[in-house]
Amino acid sequence: MARTRNAEKFDAQRQGLLAAAGACFIRLGFHAASIADICAEAGGISPGRLYHYFPSKQAMVEALVAEERAEVALLFGAVSAIEDPLEAIVSLVERGVELGCQRDYGVLATEIVGESLRSAEVGRIVRYAERDYRERLIALLADARTARARQDEPVWAAKDDDRLARGLTMIVDGASVRALLEPSSLKTLTREAVDLARLLVLSACR
């Protein structure tokens, strides 16, 4: 029982430190944010205590990417219950845009992508997360294609699953970036992204 409480305490403290790191990366940028900044954000803890949980800023980025993957998994889980296969895809895009358009989420994602271009290790982590997202999306498209075929609805070719996954990802990513530049246009961006997603999928049907 004591071991369970200790594990829960460790996880809670680690999560708090990760939130502090994320806040610093958003406010200052990955490179400008120092270990001292993160320690101060976390309530003035010592660097030694921080390193007990994360050996480097890179380890913090890896943990932040893991958090993002968990959020993505929840999105896919939520849309899997939608009966209409096309609406499941459209709903995923809508929820993805709403998540990506949150300012802090968007700024942090931009910082991590930027660092992935400078650091081979961070690049590996980001590419792994992107591959995981892409594989989930392709699987969702394949399931939707099969379901539409059973309902005698027009479907796209199996070879187009990958192309559609890329296009849908571009829609979500593009809307998220535009939201950083045009924060007052969130509702419009979300609506347009949903319309584009539906149009993209239907235009591929034969």
From TrEMBL:
One of its GO terms (molecular function) is transcription cis-regulatory region binding. SUPFAM superfamilies: Homeodomain-like, Tetracyclin repressor-like, C-terminal domain. The keyword Ubl conjugation does not apply. Residues 35-54 bind DNA. Residues 11-72 form the HTH tetR-type domain. InterPro entries: BetI_C (IPR039538), Homeodomain-like_sf (IPR009057), HTH-type_TetR-like_transc_reg (IPR050109), HTH_TetR (IPR001647), Tet_transcr_reg_TetR-rel_C_sf (IPR036271). Pfam families: TetR_C_6, TetR_N. It comes from the Bacteria. Gene3D superfamilies: Tetracycline Repressor, domain 2. Keywords: DNA-binding, Repressor, Transcription, Transcription regulation. This is Regulatory protein TetR. It comes from Brevundimonas subvibrioides (strain ATCC 15264 / DSM 4735 / LMG 14903 / NBRC 16000 / CB 81) (Caulobacter subvibrioides).
